[in-house]
Amino acid sequence: MIIVVGGTKGGVGKTTIATNLTVLRSLEPKAGGQRYEVMLVDADEQGSASDFVLQRNELLGRAGFTAVQLYGAAVRSEVLNLKEKYDDIVIDVGGRDTGSQRAALLVGNVYLVPFLPGSYDVWTLAPFSELVREARVINPDLVAYCVLNKADARGSENQQAADLAKQEAPELQYVDLPIVNRRAFRNTGGEGLAVSELKAKDKKAIAEMEALYRYVFGVTEAPKGNRKGIKAKSK
Ligand SMILES: Nc1ncnc2c1ncn2[C@@H]1O[C@H](COP(=O)(O)OP(=O)(O)OP(=O)(O)O)[C@@H](O)[C@H]1O
Ligand SMILES: [Mg+2]
Q1: Ligand 1, from 183, 186, 202, 206: best to mutate by most atoms within 8 Å of Cβ?
Q2: I want to staple 121 with a disulfide (CB 3.0 to 4.6 A). Which of 116, 162, 179, 201 is the partner?
Q3: Is the pLDDT confidence value at 233 over 90?
């Protein structure tokens, strides 16, 4: 499966989510006991996903997955070349509507757009909903989701943001599995570890990321608010 984590503006958690999903997939045992072959594509010139991998290699000696940097049209062509070699590919694209993002959407199976709960942040989703509509002309099976990140642990703000997202970005199906604003997630980037690998275990953070992982990779059924959700298709 090819998963593109992108959309919206900077700092919404694209790299945090892309790197955590990559690690979780690479650690998941397959039926025969083997591991999934996973590739993480850093398609953002800022290089944060690559920094994550550097930290990870330094700490663990090996990342457990392949990491490459690709930009612009090469995101599409190289992913097409490499996709048979990997079970799964996760692409972390930059925040702006770059060529990399458009190229990734032409080859992706799933587009996952994290967003923050404030109204100004939800409004930034609309152009990406439009981008999905355009990408589907060439890639009609593209499944597109948006998910709240840095959400409130409690309160009605999340629900309001979800309702607004459904209005503003009809092509992005809202996934009712918010990732809450937690220090554990802030710590993952600098350490090169997924939240489940950190020494100090934050059970809620781990459960949130694992639930998103299981849903996006089609391991579990749709969450409560998504009963009519489309299941992500395997490659
Ligand atoms: N759920 C969360 N709780 C707390 N902090 C978070 C959470 N998600 C991300 N962060 C932190 O927010 C900052 C931005 O996250 P991240 O780099 O993943 O965003 P991004 O969308 O990839 O940014 P950019 O657009 O710059 O690539 C980082 O410091 C990260 O550790
Ligand atoms: Mg990033």
Answers
A1: 186
A2: 116
A3: no
**Burial grade of 2 (CB within 10 A; 0-12, 13-18, 19 or more):** buried
Nearest-Å Rg of the Cα atoms of the chain is 16
Q: Which residues contact 199 (CB under 8 A, 6 or more apart)?
A: none
Q: Return the half-sphere exposure (C-beta side, CA atoms, 13 A cut-off) of residue 148.
A: 26
Domain limits, the chain: 2-226
Average of per-residue pLDDT across 181-194? 95
Output the CA 148–ligand 2 centroid distance in Å: 16
Residue 195, pLDDT above cutoff 90:
yes
Q: CB under 6 Å to ligand 1: residues? A: 10-16, 44, 46, 48, 95, 149-150, 179, 181-182, 185-186, 189
The 10s digit of each residue's pLDDT in 71-85 is 999 999 999 999 999
Give dist(CA 25, CA 160) in Å, integer. 31
Q: What stretches of the chain adopt beta strand conformation (E)?
A: 2-5, 38-43, 66-69, 88-93, 110-115, 143-148, 173-174
Q: What's the pLDDT score for residue 30? A: 87
Per-residue pLDDT tens over the stretch 93-140: 986 667 999 999 999 999 999 999 988 888 889 999 999 999 999 999
Distance 92 CA to ligand 2 centre (A): 7
